[in-house]
Specification:
With 302 residues, this protein is of the alpha/beta class. The chain has helices at 2-15, 18-25, 29-43, 59-82, 99-116, 168-173, 182-185, 217-225, 269-295, and strands at residues 48-50, 55-57, 91-97, 120-126, 140-144, 153-160, 162-167, 179-180, 190-192, 210-213, 231-234, 242-244, 246-247, 255-261. It is built from 9 helices and 14 strands. Helix 1 crosses helix 2 (18-25), helix 1 crosses helix 4 and helix 5 (99-116) crosses helix 9.
């Protein structure tokens, strides 16, 4: 029982969350708290400082974690090996991805993985918001760069090219030229996509004359094509009734798509398998997307 309590303590120390430890261990949070309290009583020291908003290790807790984490990890590896890989082929993965990527790129890769690993269940949350790994119980995330969290492990998948674009009908209505001045562009009505535009000259550009805010990219695409305003969209979303705008001092930059997870240490094998699958598949699909971009000739008028 003493060693079981140490194992529970290590999971709480690793996640700094009793709720997340409960989820990972598959036992009620009340039992996790009780196990840690019993260990503290045995050792005669306080291992965690707990408030309603955060959990952190005390100095004694940090010392204990440093001493027991590696041995517990070795024991966990031995148990996994002794069970002949049974844990590798079952369990669940909670993932998150932007809605458009979930439909067009990430989703198909997940379906391939699900077909190849029927014992592993996938829960996919689609949102443009970066969920918290601990608070929201996320195992792996698909995110567009640049990434701010330096403590996360991020493996690149592919590049997403962006452009400033407008509907052909609006291009003709405003008599736009092949190359616009920045001042002229900022007079145009625009459609915000609910996130900063990433441009070479201004890393987080905010459009000046916003008519609509549409954080669903496919809806924004439809609005642009209908002449509702100019916008900043992935280049591969261009349709024949849309045109690319060349604007002085406003140059769109590519954004990387990454698969992100908190740490490679003790990463469940099922999650590692998913990560390896999408990284491997992305190398093939990136080449196809690159060829498609070379063949693409966006329609401009004027």
């Amino acid at each position: 029982m003493y060693y079981n309590d140490l194992a529970v303590f290590a999971v709480v120390a690793r996640t700094l969350s009793f709720v997340e430890a409960s989820r990972r261990l598959g036992i009620p949070a009340s039992r996790v708290s009780r196990r840690v309290a019993e260990l503290e009583d045995r050792l005669g020291v306080k291992l965690f400082e707990r408030t309603t908003r955060r959990v952190r290790l005390t100095e004694e807790g940090a010392t204990l974690f440093d001493r027991c984490d590696a041995p517990l990890e070795m024991l966990d590896g031995a148990v996994r090996a002794g069970r002949d890989g049974a844990l590798d082929s079952q369990g669940g993965i909670r993932a998150t991805a932007p809605p458009l990527a979930a439909r067009r790129t990430i989703g198909p890769l997940l379906l391939e993985f699900m077909a190849a690993h029927p014992g592993i269940s996938i829960e996919l949350i689609t949102t443009n918001t970066n969920l918290d790994f601990v608070r929201d119980g996320v195992d792996v995330a698909f995110r567009l760069g640049p990434l701010d969290e330096s403590e996360l492990v991020a493996r690149p998948l592919w590049q997403v090219d962006y452009c400033l674009c407008v509907g052909v009908v609006m291009h003709e209505r405003y008599a736009l030229t092949d190359c616009l001045s920045r001042a002229r562009f900022e007079e145009l009505p625009t459609i915000s996509i609910g996130q900063p535009w990433r441009l070479r000259e201004v890393s987080r550009y905010e459009p000046k004359n916003v008519r609509h805010v549409l954080d669903d990219l496919e809806l924004a695409q439809t609005a642009v094509a209908a002449g509702q305003g100019a916008s900043f969209l992935p280049l591969d979303m261009l349709t024949p009734d849309m045109a690319v705008l060349d604007v002085e001092d406003l140059t769109p930059v590519s954004r990387g798509m990454y698969v992100v997870y908190p740490s490679s240490r003790l990463l469940p094998h099922r999650v590692r398998r998913l990560v390896d699958h999408v990284v491997s598949a992305s190398k093939v699909s990136s080449g196809s997307r690159r060829d498609a971009r070379l063949r693409r000739t966006p329609k401009n008028s004027g």
